[in-house]
Amino acid sequence: MLSRDFCPQADRWVAWLRRPSVALAAAMVAALTCGIFIHPLAFVGCIAILLVLAIGHAWPSIAIRGLSAELRFFESRVREGERVHAAVAITNAWPWPVWGISIEVDLGGPASVALASVAGRSTAEFEWTPTVYRRGEYPSASPLVTTGFPFGLRRASRTVATEKPLLVWPRTVPLETLLDAAETRPSDDRFSEARVGESGDNGGTRPFRPGDSLRRVHWAQTARGGGMVVCERQSPTLSAVRVVFDPEPGLHEQIDGESTLEPTIRIVASICEAYHREQASVECCHGHHAIRLEPGPAGLRRFLDALARLQPPAKPSAADPGRGHDCRRIHHRDCGTFQITVTTSLGERQRIEHRHVHGDELRIVLDTVGEPPADGRPARRTIRVPLSPDCLQEFRHEWKGVCRAG
User: Fold this and answer.
1) Residue 7 has pLDDT above 90, yes or no
2) What b-and-e string marks burial along 248-276, b requiring 16 or more CB atoms within 10 Å of the CB?
3) Running DSSP on this structure, what letter comes out for residue 388?
4) Both 72 and 141 in a single domain?
5) Distance, CA of 127 to CA of 86 (rounded, Å)
């Protein structure tokens, strides 16, 4: 009976009664009443409780004024679910030691650490390895050094300086097989699969232009025609893919305390990482923004940094409810690129994000409903991934099946 909350609706009015200070104050009033009406010896208890209240509220504020702390991470980038090596250096300016110190850091989950004490006029460094559970740039809020010593009646805190932020990349799964994404569909001014380049086979000849290398001069044609003629070479066909998702809050749901945006970003990062590893031309689009992955590890690192810092846009206000339902179209130069759209069941029903697809498209749907929308429209090639704690492995299995089927 004492451990169960029978009336949670009344917590906001009676929560203050659970504080230790309230019980001590009630005991002090009782002792004062006994001293007035029963016996003066009760005043001793009243004074003792008053001293406990005074010290318990004043001492933490005094102790925290002499403390300064700096937090640093030994790694600059980790992935979700990995541990990070962190250290905090605490300097105590008081000549006496300070006890009962704790460091509170927001790393997408509990990452606090309790420290026994710091000696007077000294600096102590403590290290620990918390686990980071969610992507982002941390610490998302200012870390705090707090103390409630000696009685825990009141906790005083002070901001901790951070040497450099920590970037947490989204978790990914390796994709061993990939869909064919050869950029062979003509678009804009491209009307042939044979493109001009510098490293392919000889594709023909053309008149010399200023800046052409003399090594490319076709001397036989030059001698025959009297004018400089150079060999023109072809460029190899590239693989190109565009990965599209929408971070609009109206297209995502909160399930088990996590938005469906997070597994969406994990799937997007897995696809982009796999194609980038195979030297493909990869473009990732979200909202009105487009990120083109540059070649090499540095390009992938910058892309994952951008995904780690990505925050969903603000929800549309009540005065402008239709703003969130606009079609967020990006006008691409090459509209024939193979496109992979990652969305949710809600986004699939609303048909909001990137409806203008001119080339082949694969749609990946995080299924929170269990059945596709019955709207009578022709179905595109679609992978439906049931939303679950292991949805990344489910996606990997479905992706492998689609790749084998072609």
Assistant:
1) no
2) bbbbbbeeeeebbbebbbbbbbbbbbbbb
3) S
4) yes
5) 6
